[in-house]
Amino acid sequence: MPGERLTVRSPAEIGRFPGAAPPLRVELTIQSQEGKKQEEGGCRRWFRKICPCCCKRQNGTSYDITDKVEYTKPPNAAAVTMPEPVKPKPENGEMKETEEVKLSVCSVDLLSSQSGQNRVEHHTDLYHGDELIIRRGQTFQMEIEFSRPFSADTDKMRLELKTGPLPIVSKGTHVIIPLVEHMDDERWEAKITEQTGNKIRLSVNSPASAVIGLYGLTVTTSSAKDGEPTVHSSSKDIVMLFNPWCEEDTVFLDDEEQRKEYVLNDIGRIYYGTEKQIGARTWNFGQFHEGILDACLFILEKSDMPPSGRGDPVNVVRVISAMINAQDDYGVLVGNWSGNYADGVSPAAWSSSVEILRKYHSSTGTPVKYGQCWVFSGVTTTVLRCLGIPARSVTNFQSAHDTDVSLTTDIYFDENMEPIDLLNSDSVWNFHVWNDCWMARPDLPPGHGGWQAVDSTPQETSQGTFRCGPASVNAIRSGQVYLKHDTPFVFAEVNSDKIYWQRNLDGTFSQVYSEKKAVGHCISTKAVGSDERNDITHLYKHPEESEEERIAVETACRYGSKPDVYSVPASEDVTVEVKIDGEGPRMGTDAKLSIVVKNQSSQPRQTTLHSQVAVMYYTGVLKNAIKKDKIPVELLPNEEKIIEWVLPYQQYQSQLVDQAALMLTLSGRVSETKQVLANQTTFRLRTPDLQITPLGEAVVGKEMSAKITFTNPLSRILKDVVFRVEGLGLQKGHEVVVGDVGGQATVTLTEHFIPTQPGPRKLVASLDCKQLTQVHGVADVVVREQ
């Protein structure tokens, strides 16, 4: 009768390098006869004793032959000589039943199911796939099946974990895990918790300082009677992450709601605009999405940081800050503020980190085009949360960029109080987005742990590389700019004074005005557990003009390049400020602002205000002035005048850049007192939102749809319009090419998709075109189980 054929292939055909050696074929044919009892011969019993995992006795005389034979390649296959099989010593043609079987590992089960005990207890059950993903400083379970029952008295076993290209025990990258009777904390150890027949269950513990990353596992067994030990390599790797739930881990965060937000939430909000016109956009961090963990580990591998340094979150964050930008190390994102994105994707078009990271990983490290600060921050949040470091995106409005380490923002005017653009290298960005991450700082004096500022946007170099942080937010608040890393730069962003200088006739400059509340306003992040904006300015600086705030500024400036910049303030009785009504001017209409000039003295005052409005990149770099005026002002004692200022649509319609931002600069001198008046106000032209309306019932596995509507606010045609749509658990990210959209025209798209995950979800869409940016929308979708 035809038999069953079992083929065993050589080690070279199994694993990562197929075809490295000619195949070894072993064919075992089993003939069966109906109705005839099959006797077991001596050779058959010998084969069963040599490999009991493959030939298990059932019902006494029949055998269950597995249809899969696993072969594990030894560490050095070329140096291993296959031992000759031990010849059976028959007694009357049969093997003795009492002969000892050599101890070896038949299989290792890492219990890595996504919904299993390990993944749930380690808060890694949201990650895609069935790999064993665990957090350091916490025990995990595994099962091992041997060729015979394991005896703790006569048998020995140890586990070994290796990470990196050259694992070394002293560096913590080669870990030898001993078998112990009693578990202690803060060390590698394993304990048998259960034994049934040939199987044992192990509880394995790791220290809270363990190196994070990808580990390979081997199990070595030996016995006093067996001689040479045997080694079994697990076919699955282990991923080790930081552990914010472990008190001994330096990233420990003692608040469950904050851990849910800053580690487990895969959707967030990023703020932009100006302090008086704060906009918000939804961002898909997607740290648990398929392929993202692999991409994050790839970024660590691609960096120059040795694997032994991956146990310290300060090192890891500093490396991530450098690797997210491509400025000098072929990192993830290419920065582009030129307005020309023809060979890539406009920064305003992204609404998710997923596509960026997967594209970078799949191209084996080709930088993705293009990013600006909010994109760098969104991707940084994804990577840090994915690795287990609590993180959030933070937006600072009126964010200073100090280029000369003076810790002041310097504005230079000529003899006529006209700005000298050539000298004005310091700038104030409308907004700038960076990150906070949470960790202890044992490398700093006590009291400087907690939130740390880290910035992946390439602005200035730090120790020769474009990166920034981590800088203690507590140190920034108190002006302790001498504490690492990059604290002076972040301090200047949030709390530098704006110093106005006027050129004298002899070419020197005199300080004519000091603005103490010019930068660092409405520092914002998404609130815990809601989509509301949380103002965290108080974490970065003391209340403006309080004694504590002035002490912090003076403390910081003593370490800057202009320690003697402050002078005695002149008498000031005239004030000037700019007010924006409501949400501010909208794109496609005249921009109207109010200039309020107030005389606080009992004497009349007279001045001439020089006004200049310029188109501005959100980074604070001016493109060009589009309107200049001189406004004479006469004030009676204690009088307040409101001057209506208007910028016609025709003057700005063809001049705008990315964020539709403008800066109005006012300057002048009071005739009677020679007091200098100066004010700079940034504002943006608000763009319309995309309206997203879910249609139908939201049920897992059932098709539904959503309608996306957009109306062009401009009277001119929008060219090459592209929509990007994505929703974690709803719809994979993709583009919809719309083409040209006429002036004042309305576009409606209908998206059809099948939800894959239950619970509250967000469908996010954005519009990408040259003439109009920062157009996006979001819809909440609550998906229920089928």
UniProtKB/TrEMBL annotation:
Compartments where located: Membrane
A GO-annotated cellular component: membrane
Alphabetic keyword roster: Acyltransferase, Calcium, Keratinization, Lipoprotein, Membrane, Metal-binding, Palmitate, Phosphoprotein, Transferase
Cofactor note: Binds 1 Ca(2+) ion per subunit.
Any single GO BP term: nervous system development
Pfam families with a match to the protein in the record: Transglut_C (PF00927), Transglut_core (PF01841), Transglut_N (PF00868)
Primary enzyme class: transferase
Similarity comment: Belongs to the transglutaminase superfamily. Transglutaminase family.
Protein name: Protein-glutamine gamma-glutamyltransferase K
